[in-house]
């Protein structure tokens, strides 16, 4: 699977789709924490970010 923007190749179509966001600037993954408006182009980055909310709630 090849990126039509830069020619980079990927073994899986899902990896190509994630890579395409780097060209389009799309950030389809949104933090659901109230008051947090952060968005991410990579799901794993959202998951890592969500852990910050869990840690801050424990520290209250």
UniProtKB/TrEMBL annotation:
PROSITE patterns: ZINC_FINGER_C2H2_1, ZINC_FINGER_C2H2_2. The keyword Zinc applies. This is C2H2-type domain-containing protein. It comes from the Eukaryota. Residues 1-28, 29-58 form the C2H2-type domain. One of its GO terms (cellular component) is PcG protein complex. One of its GO terms (molecular function) is zinc ion binding. Transmembrane segments: none annotated. Gene3D superfamilies: Classic Zinc Finger (3.30.160.60). Signal peptide: none annotated. It is found in: Nucleus. Pfam families: zf-C2H2. It comes from Basidiobolus meristosporus CBS 931.73. Keywords: Metal-binding, Nucleus, Repeat, Transcription, Transcription regulation, Zinc, Zinc-finger. Its main location: nucleus. Belongs to the krueppel C2H2-type zinc-finger protein family.
């Amino acid at each position: 699977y090849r990126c039509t923007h830069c020619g980079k190749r990927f073994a899986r179509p899902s990896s190509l789709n994630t890579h395409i966001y780097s060209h389009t600037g799309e950030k389809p993954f949104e933090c659901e924490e109230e008051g947090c408006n952060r968005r991410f182009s990579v799901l794993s980055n959202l998951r890592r970010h969500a852990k910050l909310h869990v840690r801050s709630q424990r520290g209250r």
